[in-house]
Amino acid sequence: MAEPEPVPLDGSLTLVIPVHNEAANMPRVVGRSVATLAQLASSWEIVLVDDGSTDETVTAARRAMGDQASRLRVIAHPHKLGYGVTVADGLRAATTDYVAFMDGDGQFDPADLTSLAALMPTADLAAGWRRRRADPRYRLVIAGVFNLLVRVLYGVRVRDIDCGLKLMDRTVLDAAAPLLARSALLNTELYFKAKRSGLRVSQVPVPHYPRVAGVRSGARLIPILRAIRDLVWLRLRLSRQWRAPSLAVPVPENL
Description:
By secondary structure, the chain is of the alpha/beta class. It contains eight helices and seven strands.
């Protein structure tokens, strides 16, 4: 199937890429991101959030930017803080009209951001769902259980809630502030707040590719148990510390 023709966005764009020891993946991930972003927006940047890498991830990313190096911003954690904190730091740093994020492990093709951009005329948050997830079977089982718990506790009914390829306009981040999750529950928080705020959410299937370089970091027992604990913790915090903003347009009194 041919890739869709890019639909340029009507504003500036930031792509947040969370990374931890992904030097081997940077040439392909960053290189293809540069080519795609240039098609989607005239004003764009990449925010690379380095989560305590001990290899040459940042150096490799700068090299992959080529003559577009001035469009790369780097946020560096002194030590590993985890996926949710890393993505959230990138989202908070973005000041553009549109913000996307994509995992830096090479399992997504940055060109698929064009499929998300095509949804934006009728969506505030556009997300991928992995058509055929290229992960071991035990990860698929864990994901299924996690999605079920999210539906029960949060009332969020979407496919593949943790798919690390999303694009949103500024209203989503404004409505979601402040971001509370400090784990992989960031995706759950974004969906929950977007839906409770009356914002439009759309999804589209995207390919998912096997990891060919680097070391997989997810699906270890302790982080899984922590994520399940945090499902309850975050739901309680949301009920106490966040209220959906009113997005209704006031009606003039003489109508």
